[in-house]
Write a structure and sequence with these properties.
2 domains; two-stranded antiparallel ribbon; elongated; alpha+beta
């Protein structure tokens, strides 16, 4: 079983009466560090990877262009970081519905933050029911039948940035499921 805390009575009733779950916008999260791990590049350690990235993403450009971009990104990595960080804008259009595990049902922090200061309730869902989620994407106006369900990790050292060329880095999808251990 997994559990969903409810603080908003309207969302609770729509879940019970209409079998609908509320998906929050990422920018409305109460933890400002969630889903906010921008790219930061270490040029000294990643020159070869930057060169490879430019070559693989130049799409039949002339050699002078490729050389120009390599020099630009190595001398001013902020330009490449800015370009890569634009790719993270997909996060702003995502809706997220958070559930918790049974061990958190008695967490004072969870009840305080997610159940309107202990005034609402928590509902249980079987994990097999999560495969039945049917989503309407209001931004792109399409129906989706696949929800991404992942367990959250709670690292002791929260990353401030992600180096896109670091072989041991979390992927951006992994980073979407990182929270501070306090939660």
């Amino acid at each position: 079983m997994i559990y969903k805390f409810f603080s908003n009575i309207e969302f609770l009733f729509s879940t019970i009466n209409d079998s609908q779950l509320w998906f929050s916008k990422v920018e409305d999260f109460n933890d400002p560090f969630e889903w906010d791990f921008p790219y930061k590049i270490n040029v000294d350690n990643n020159k070869a990877e930057i060169i490879k990235y430019v070559i693989e993403n130049s799409f039949n450009r002339i050699p002078q262009y490729i050389e120009y971009k390599i020099n630009e990104y190595i001398s001013t990595p902020k330009k490449l970081e800015d370009e890569l960080n634009l790719t993270l804008s997909y996060r702003k259009n995502k809706g997220v519905c958070c559930f918790t595990i049974p061990e958190n049902n008695n967490s004072i922090l969870m009840w305080s933050h997610y159940a309107n200061n202990h005034k609402r309730l928590v509902l249980a869902f079987s994990e097999s029911e999560m495969n039945l989620i049917h989503i309407y994407d209001w931004v792109n106006r399409i129906h989706c039948t696949k929800a991404y369900i992942n367990k959250v990790t709670y690292p002791e050292d929260m990353p401030c940035y992600i180096n896109p060329f670091d072989k041991n880095r979390p992927t951006t999808k992994d980073a979407d499921f990182i929270k501070s251990p306090i939660w």
